[in-house]
Write a structure and sequence with these properties.
8-stranded mixed beta sheet, 42% helix, 8 strands, 8 helices, 2 domains, alpha/beta, Rossmann fold
Length: 320
């Protein structure tokens, strides 16, 4: 007969397993350290990549800001706004010193010339409304302007020469659409309570430079511009066409530009002078087309900085 109440006491000698426990613990520590190191390496690589991208996007603004440190602390308001049909632009401006602004539609200041800002319609290159243009808009806003960086590509941005060519061709096939877009950009700025509607200028580079001139030639009677700025854009030398311009013009060009040769710049300048249009035309020696674009092979930092200072001085002279 078996007694079911019998209990068995099993004693395990853990000392036998101590070496194995130690080995497992050491392996765990090594594995954890390896994973941590790997994560640190990946994070470092990602950080370097992001820094490289950011440097590429902000290089121009960084260079231009070196001589403008006095404006580095100016606070800006920015947002994406719909200013024409399906076109959304990037609006940026300094926050008024007299009023805290919760939104664009709010009244940031009283409606007089002392408390409103002059404004600029900024027109992108053939790449589209990319980060570089937005950075430039912010840089100009810190000079005391309400800046609307427009979009002539309906939200598309080119990353290759082929795609840029396709986008710019579509615009040139329907020039009235882009002109209408720019006219509405002027109207939009004029409607803002923080803008002095009698002090609105246009500024563009390359494709945008040509569009800046086209806006000047097609400005609506009720919305005249106060200044036009053209960076190596397609020009018009017909005196009758240029006679429509009643405000100062600034032109920035390079003498090695095969797209906009010096001869065409001279003819443009002569036509402006014949019509009695105030102008400042600068042709930089030794630089080619798009020399102010930091992502291009023709980028010339010293000439770019000098041209930007001339731009800021020009705007201050005729808009403030």
């Amino acid at each position: 007969m078996h007694d079911s109440s019998i209990k068995y006491n099993i004693v395990i000698d853990t000392s036998l397993y101590k070496p194995y426990i130690t080995i497992v613990f050491v392996l765990f520590i090594i594995l954890t350290s390896s994973l941590t190191s790997l994560n640190n390496i990946v994070s470092w690589a990602e950080g370097q990549q992001q820094q490289s991208v950011n440097n590429g996007n902000t290089k121009n603004v960084t260079e231009l800001s070196k001589s403008n440190s006095k404006n580095s602390s100016i606070m800006l308001e920015n947002k994406t706004v719909n200013y024409f049909e399906n076109a959304n632009g990037y609006l940026v401006y300094p926050i008024s010193t007299t009023t805290t602004l919760p939104s664009v539609e709010s009244n940031i200041s009283t409606n007089n010339n002392n408390d409103t800002f002059p404004a600029v319609v900024m027109i992108h290159e053939w790449w589209g409304l990319n980060k570089n243009i937005k950075n430039m808009a912010e840089s100009l806003a810190k000079e005391g302007y309400v800046v609307l960086a427009v979009d002539l590509y309906n939200g598309q941005v080119a990353n290759t020469t082929e795609s840029a060519q396709n986008l710019v061709s579509k615009v040139r096939e329907n020039p009235s659409e882009s002109i209408n877009n720019l006219q509405h950009a002027v109207r939009y700025l004029a409607s803002l309570e923080n803008v002095n509607s009698s002090k609105i200028a246009s500024l563009g580079w390359c494709f945008g430079g040509g569009q800046s001139l086209q806006l000047a030639l097609n400005t609506e009677p009720g919305y005249p511009l106060a200044a036009t700025i053209i960076y190596y854009g397609n020009l018009v030398s017909d005196q009758e066409s240029l006679s429509k311009i009643k405000w100062p013009v600034l032109g920035i060009f390079g003498d090695q530009d095969k797209s906009i040769p010096v001869d065409s710049v001279k003819k443009f300048e002569d036509a402006l002078n014949t019509n009695g249009i105030t102008n400042e035309i600068y042709i930089y020696k030794g630089v080619g087309h798009a020399f102010a674009n930091p992502s291009g092979d023709n980028y010339a930092p010293q000439e770019t900085q000098d041209a930007w200072q001339k731009t800021v001085s020009f705007l201050e002279k005729y808009l403030k």
